[in-house]
Amino acid sequence: MLRRLLAAPGTVGLDVEDAERLVVHKRVLERKPLLRDVFREDHELLMDLDRRTFGSTAGLRVELGAGVAPVSMSFPEVLATDVVAGPGLDRVLDAQDMELPDASVRVLFGQNCFHHFPDPLRFLREAERVLAPGGGLVLIEPYYGPAASLVYRRLFATEGFDKDMPGWRTAATGSMHGANQALSYIVFVRDRAIFEKELPGLELVGTDPLANWVRYLLSGGLNFRQLVPRRSAGALKALERALHPARRVLALHQVIVLRRRR
Questions:
Q1: What CATH fold (topology level) applies to the domain 2-260?
Q2: If we measure between CA atoms, which residue out of 198, 196, 162 comes closest to residue 179?
Q3: Can you tell me the distance from the alpha carbon of 47 to that of 216, in angstroms, rounded to the nearest whole number?
Q4: pLDDT digits (tens, 9 = 90+) for 76-118
Q5: In whole angstroms, how far apart are CA 140 and each of 32, 166, 182, 238?
Q6: What pTM value is reported for the model?
Q7: DSSP 189
């Protein structure tokens, strides 16, 4: 009942597997400058990590699962792709079977898409194939700290948060249903030794929880109503700065950087 009361206009009863979802979410985003600011900061972080980590590596910049807030909103040179066609996207691309030449990509970006891949090992092997040596992946994914673990178990009816899921394959049915929002924790933290054994060509450079969780949560994201007025952005940023030391407890998202070994 509470989820329905807090749902953003137009999202109640929305079929998350229908392409109409992208149209509805685009309208939601247009009404939320607070959320657009969060996405813009995330885009800038992704590009900054790309430039600092992958040096002079040649190749395409490609975003997977770009949805309605693609990195190309901020950096038009990034190719915006998703598994389904939608507004603002450049092409349809299956992350687990990419129609891209070997070693043709400098960086693969992903914003909250990795946990939707039914077979993450297959995706990571495919990423290893298309990435140029010295290039890599920069992913933003749900975090696994205390606050995130509490929130994500209750936030979405179509996605779970199960840190104890056996193996890596999810019970995904379609591109949205059945996702496990704890998947990045499972692959890169819980099963890191397995990751390193199965994918010796990929190096986990690092992970870091994001600090903009206050604005993201109170903006309502793409599915829920905004809970604060627009003019609160400055105060919320100040609050995030004050809470920065506690981000490993309070953060809702993390950034993950992987590099293709030379």
A1: Rossmann fold (3.40.50)
A2: 162
A3: 20
A4: 999 999 998 888 899 999 999 999 999 999 999 999 999 999 9
A5: 20, 23, 12, 23
A6: 0.93
A7: I
